[in-house]
Amino acid sequence: MRGRLVLCLSLGMIIPAVGAGPEKSKTNPQLVEVLKEISRQKIEASIGKLVDFGTRHTLSVTTSETRGIGAARRWLQEELERYAKDSGGRLQVSLDQFTQPAGERNPQPVQVVNVVATLPGDQLESRDRIYVVSGHYDSRVSDVMNATADAPGADDDASGVAAVLELARVMSKKKWDATLVFMAVAGEEQGLFGSTHWAKRAREKNWDVAGMITNDIIGSARSEVGHADKGHVRLFAEGVPPLKEMPARWLAQIQTGGENDSPARELARFIKTTAERYLGGMTVELIYRKDRYLRGGDHSPFLAAGYPAVRMTEPNEDFRHQHQDVRKVQGVQYGDLPEFVDFEYTAQVTRVNAASLGALALAPARPAGVEMETQELTNDTTLHWQPNREPDLAGYEIFWRETTAPFWQHSVFVGNVTRYTVAKVSKDNYVFGVAAVDQEGNRSPAVYPVPSAK
What we know:
By secondary structure, the chain is of the alpha/beta class. The chain has ten helices and 19 strands. It has two domains: 4-25 and 368-451, Sandwich (Immunoglobulin-like); 38-362, Zn peptidases (Aminopeptidase).
C-alpha cells in the first residue's frame, strides 16, 4: 500500500502514515444487539431474588433451601445453568469451592464457593486470553460477624451480581474471539476470600487474564442528599502498584513518565472510550486510584496477581444503605433494601460492561514486547514490538498524547509491521502507546513502550 501524508493541524506538522487502516466504525453490530438485549426487568428480578434469601453472609446457614448463602449460591448455579442450556452448551458452569482457614472475620474454617460461568472463545489464537467480570453475592450488616440478621445486600452487591448474570445470559448467545468468565464470588465482606482464591489459582496456572472488571455497588446514582446522577459511573484504576520490589519493566516505565499508563489504566481508558461511544449520555469517570478510602474490592487480588483489573461503582454512595442493620431512626430508613436501587441505572451500568467486555473479546491481544528505541538523539520516535498471532490481524496503531493529557489525542495506523518511526514527533514530549487492530476495526487496549535495551 502506498504511504500517504496526514496533516496533523494540532501538532503543526506533517505525520507520515502507512495507510488509513480499517475504518474506525462508530459501532459494532454484534455489540449493538447485545446492548439492546440487556433487560432492566431481569436485573430487577435477580436483585429481588437475592434479597429474598434474607441474608447471604459468608458464615450464614448453608443447608436451608430458602435462607442463607447456601440457598443463594444454589440458585445462582441454577440460573447460570439455564443460560448454559440456552447457549447450546457453550457456556460452562462450575463451582470453585475451597475451605478458607480460620481468621479475623471467620473464627472457624468456612467453605467458600464461587459460582463461575465460562464462555470459551471461538478463535483458536485468542481462546487462552481471558476477560473476567465479577460481583460478590455475600452480604453483611453493621456487625460484620453477624451471620443471622437480615442482610438484604440489594446494592452491595446484588446489583453487581445481577449485572454479571445478565451479561452471562445475553453474551453467551454470541460468539467472541477471546474467553469470557462471568463470576459471582463469595467472602468479599469477610476479606476478599473468593476473588483471592481464584486470582491466585489463575496466576499459579499461568492463565492469561488480560482484563478484569468487578462490579460492586452499581445500583444507585442517588446521593445521601437526594441528588441523582444517572449519567455517570466511577471506574477505579490503579497506577503504579505498591510493590516492595519493583520489577525492571516497572522501574523503566516510572523513570520515563509512564506512571499513568499501567495496564489497569490502559484498560480503564479502553472501557471509557468504548462505553461512551456506544452509550450516549453515559460518562465513565476514571478515578486514578485503586479504590475508595477505607474500602476494598474483588479487583484487588487480581492486581496483586499482576493482572489488569478495575472497579466499577456508582457515582454517589449513600452509606445509610451500605453495611447497615435494617432499621428506622427518627424516621430515616437504614439498610441495603431494594427500594433504594435504581434498576434502570443498574441496567445502564450493565451495558457499560457489555460494550467494554464485548469489544475486548472481539479485539486482538495487546501487542507484546513494545519498546521505544532510545539509543540515538533524534526528534523522531521509533517503536518496535512483537507480532500478534491472530489470523485476522490488520496491523497496529500508534497513539500519543501530551504528558499532561489523560487520554490519547493522536494516532496513526502503521500497517502490519513490527517497527515504525513517527517522524518529527519527539519521544521527549509525548506519551506513546501501541495497539493491535483486526480487519473489522476492533482495537486492543494500548501498551506503553519502555526504552529498548538494545
